[in-house]
Amino acid sequence: MSDTRAGFIALIGEPNAGKSTLLNRMVGAKVSIVTHKVQTTRARIRGVAMEGQSQLVFVDTPGLFQPRRRLDRAMVAAAWGGAADADVVVLMIEAHRGMSDGVKAILDGLGDLGDRRIALAINKIDKVKSETLLALTQAMNEAFAFEKTFMISAEKGHGCDTLRAWLAQAVPLGPWLYPEDQLSDLPMRMIAAEMTREKLTLRLHQELPYQLTVETENWEERKDGSCKIDQLVYVMRDGHKGIVLGNKGETIKAVGQAARAELEEFLGRKVHLFLQVKVRPNWLEESERYDEMGLNFKDGNS
């Protein structure tokens, strides 16, 4: 009988709860987009971590929120789908925000997940006093019978080793699902697109980041070991294109430089990155765009 373990772990919670930060810390590399803006994770991004004889496959789901548009509805469906498919579910909440209306809505949905092992991770514990933390822990466990509660700081790493050790024994016995050195099962084309989208999100403000998407159109391996990546940035109107390009193309140039540097670090080789901005007014209603993001277009139906 094998003593190896492997399983899927879904990180769920409200937007900006720190799920992507925790995923990246657990995996030890950047596989999920992390910004200060909410709703940035669109697809379910899997990161693979090894802990002893256990392989932990993390699913970083989009934040759960009240959906308004087709894209929102598809993201929320993907989040609950990721939880339903997982062996272990970790609900992440922010210590300083406590039991918000959004958290209460998620608690109501946890009962539909059947016999999943469900743990609570209270994140950003450095932002509140210990008595506040204890009161929140008690209130959350009275609202739902969590198997285990962890107090963590995903950004600083506090409590993350304890959570990881528990997850290692919580996943089922069985063979590993991926090669030991594999960080993610996402195609590199999608990871590259996400990295560029992160840089755009950090650089731009207001609503625009949620009205653009990035696709890797072409990936060419070169004889010298480098690679050439062509990406398209889709925006919804001409005014948006001007914002993304910036004065004399300065914004898109800075975004390209930052994305290329991160890609080179991630891939460990030279990258030639070329970005092109295109106006596509109805991209939010095109099924092909959802396929590229790893979302189900039909899930966006109201």
Automatic annotation (TrEMBL):
Gene Ontology MF terms in the entry: GTP binding; GTPase activity; ribosomal small subunit binding; small ribosomal subunit rRNA binding
Membrane topology classification: Peripheral membrane protein
Cited Pfam families: KH_2 (PF07650), MMR_HSR1 (PF01926)
Residue ranges of every copy of the Era-type G domain listed in the record: 5-173
Gene Ontology terms describing biological process: ribosomal small subunit assembly
Secretion signal span: none
A Gene Ontology cellular-component term: cytosol
Domain of life: Bacteria
Keyword Glycoprotein part of the UniProt annotation: no
G1: region residues: 13-20
Annotated region (G2), positions in chain: 39-43
Repressor listed as a keyword: no
Alphabetized UniProt keyword annotations: Cell membrane, Cytoplasm, GTP-binding, Membrane, Nucleotide-binding, Ribosome biogenesis, RNA-binding, rRNA-binding
Family annotation (HAMAP family): GTPase_Era
Task of the protein: An essential GTPase that binds both GDP and GTP, with rapid nucleotide exchange. Plays a role in 16S rRNA processing and 30S ribosomal subunit biogenesis and possibly also in cell cycle regulation and energy metabolism.
Family: Belongs to the TRAFAC class TrmE-Era-EngA-EngB-Septin-like GTPase superfamily. Era GTPase family.
Quaternary organization: Monomer.
Protein name: GTPase Era
Lineage, broadest ranks: Bacteria, Pseudomonadati, Pseudomonadota, Alphaproteobacteria, Rhodobacterales
